[in-house]
Design goal:
Helix content: 40-55%
Radius of gyration: 18 Å
Shape: extended
Number of strands: 0
Number of helices: 5
Largest sheet: none
Length: 110
């Protein structure tokens, strides 16, 4: 693969935030603290869902996603289907940041 190592989810999100002129979050929240906040958030949402429609801002499922390691690998699709990205990764990040600058961010991300 020509991506050694492949970019991680968090590295990619940091690049996107920087390209968008936003400050990336640097730090950690202990998993038990985040889990407690997620459970409280879900319980409040269950009771106040009519007042605050939509998904809770913190959820245990979100914790599992945030705490996992994800990598953006393209070697299998390149090998199996002969796919190649239409633009370089850096250009894709710039285009995505430009798109977010002209379109509203989803409320769950703000």
């Amino acid at each position: 693969s020509d991506e050694t190592p492949p970019p991680s989810y968090w590295d990619t999100m940091e690049e996107l935030l920087v390209a968008s002129g936003r400050k990336p979050f640097r730090g950690t929240i202990p998993r038990p603290v985040f889990a407690a906040l997620a459970h409280i958030s879900e319980a409040l949402h269950a009771r106040l869902g009519r007042v605050f429609p939509g998904e809770p801002r913190f959820s245990y499922e979100g914790l599992l996603v945030a705490a996992s390691d994800c990598w953006f690998r393209t070697d299998a699709i390149r090998r199996d289907l002969g796919w190649a990205p239409p633009v370089a990764r850096e250009e894709a990040v710039r285009r995505t940041a430009r798109w977010f600058a002209t379109n509203p961010w989803p409320k769950t991300l703000v």
